[in-house]
Amino acid sequence: MDPTLEQQVRLIDPEDQRVLMTVCLNLTLFFRGGSTPEKRQAILMMLTDYQQMMQGKLNFTTNPQTGSWKDLRKKPYQTPHDWLPELSDQEWEFVYHGGQHHRDASDIRFLVLGKPSWQEQHGDLGWVTVNFPLNFFSASSETFQDVALRWIEALQPLHGYGAISTTHNHFDDHEYESLEVQLAEQYPGLDIPDYIGHGLHLKDQIKGVNWLTIIHQTHLDSIGGLPALEAISGIRVWQRGDNTIIQAADQPTLAKIPQSYYQLGALLAPVRSTTLYEPHYEDEGFTEEDYAQWLARFDTPDI
After folding, report:
1. pTM confidence score
2. Alpha-carbon separation of residue 262 from 180, 253, 266 (angstroms)
């Protein structure tokens, strides 16, 4: 991966040298059933996997009751394996990341939010989003796809995606937003996340096409099944339970987007969410309309 991308995306606060935004290889999955033992065990399996991959690199987590940060470099701290299985039907979340400061954006991060059943009845989704350094898998015995397929098979999400993505700081500093808009315009293949907004608004529809796009069997049936996907050249398809995982190109692409992205986008447009919402807070960020156009960027084949 071109190191200049990380240099271009990485944004540092000049006053305190905190990392406001950086770039990563990201897998994000949306799910229901956050109160069930099966989903919680799947998340814990994913976390165990990730802890083994990132051994010695996870610097911070939080207290599950208070949200206060805990520096794992100073002393060990309880893990979700200790409290999540016995938790009642309520919202739960946890985070691990590899920043040098607890506020830093980091390309090493495991962040999850599980919803109680009453919120899921209103359509809210739980989500888990996991960051890897861009070149992490170049020295691994596994590929990103290997890990993604294993986790998807365990969690059986409603939908999700894998892509090169921006990732943000942990203290609600939104100074990165104007740069993020510029990067989105320059790199159509770069994902711009908004996990909280997606969890509230995507419901049963997908965010859109990415390098990896994960859809449910109901989505697949509505677009014509596997034969419709097989008509698109240049893609790979896996199936794990009720999930179909579609790889849009051999490698994640940022600027020179292959036709397969657009053909896949046009095919999946009927199951892509068109709900308007803003991922940004500042005037220089995305408006509802701008973000809607960005989400639709692959809907029409590029002629």
Report:
1. 0.95
2. 22, 12, 6
Question: In the chain, what are the helix, strand and coil shares in percent, each to the nearest 5?
Answer: 35, 20, 45
Which range has the top average pLDDT, 43-57, 178-192, 285-299?
43-57
The residue written with tokens 């701290």 in the block is: 77
Is pLDDT at 2 greater than 70 in this prediction? no
Contact 43, 128 (CB under 8 A): yes
Helix, strand, or coil (residue 86): coil
Average pLDDT in the chain: 92
CA dist 86 and 186 (Å) reads: 46
Domain ranges of the chain: 3-295
Pairwise pLDDT comparison (286 vs 128), residue with the higher score: 128
The rounded distance, in Å, linking the Cα atoms of 203 and 126 is 10
Q: Which of 12, 31, 25, 38 is nearest to 103 (CA)?
A: 12
DSSP structure class, residue 235: -
> Cα(285)–Cα(287) distance, rounded to whole angstroms?
6
| Phi, psi of 46, deg, nearest 5 | -60, -45
Q: Is the pLDDT of residue 250 over 80?
A: yes
The residue whose two tokens read 């065990």 is 41
Q: How far apart are alpha carbons 257 and 248 in whole angstroms?
A: 10
Q: Say how many Å lie between the first and final Cα of the chain, rounded.
A: 28
Measure the CA–CA gap between 3 and 215, rounded to whole angstroms: 31
Number of neighbours of residue 39 by Cβ within 10 angstroms: 20
Q: Which amino acid appears at position 279 of this protein?
A: P
Q: Residue 106 carries which side chain, given as an amino acid letter? A: S
Separation of alpha carbons 292 and 213, rounded Å: 18
